[in-house]
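Thread: "does anyone have the structure for this chain?"

Original post by V.I.:
We have the sequence but no experimental structure in hand. Need at least a predicted one for the grant figures.
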Amino acid sequence: MNSFRVVLYAEVLKIRKSKILWFTLAAFSIAPLMGGFFMFVLKNPELAESAGLLGAKAQIVGEANWPSYLSLLAQTIAVGGILTFGFITSWVFGREYTDRTAKDLLALPYSRAIIVNAKFVTILLTNILLSLHVIIVGIIIGLVIGLPMWTLSVVIHGLYVLMITTLLTVALGTPVAFFAIYGRGYLGPLGFVVLMVVFSQIIAAAGYGAYFPWAVPALYSGVTGTAQILPISSVSIVLLVSLLGFISTHLLWLFADQH
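Reply from O.Q.:
Generated one for you, tokens below.
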């Protein structure tokens, strides 16, 4: 346990000292700001009328109230999180090869499994921090705008959907780690993430999104217009893919030749 804490501290320190955390934090902040702006446009019909096309685009997000706004935040985490969380995972695992520090990790007096587990925990904590940032900034913006329908039941339901959406999205990061080690860098895992986002759009449009893991978080968040109650099979597929990615990453790091 002491060894794990030491390695975890080192991994957390790496990401805290890097610019990647602040870059993704700033990029992820755009979503609640844009969502709040759309809500402000919808809340002021005269502004929406004068805005023309902008007002028409704002209508896509629904009505100017807390249920619609919280649903929009969940959709932001589901869709944007696939890319953002995948970027974080690519950096945490891929940088060791780009910076040529992978051999240094292997020389440490700690097991390879501890190193991989510490990286996964660091990714989990970072991604949850990013999601909390989006939620907190979004709620502050909503309160400033003065959105209606702020009730305890609405807030609890909205936060529950946000929490489940975040966990589903974060769980899909383990295969990205596998491709970061397999490709020994950033390009392989980032290409995989982009490919999965494209496939999720196509498969969801075909009506089979509930069976494609990278489309499941978006469907649950209500990206189709209404929040869906996912079948057990959809959640099971996400968990299975996450477990396979976790195990395959461990096996590749433990037994593959690291040059």
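V.I.: this helps a lot. The CA atoms of residues 210 and 216 lie 6 Å apart.
O.Q.: and Residues 55-60 have pLDDT under 50 and may be disordered.
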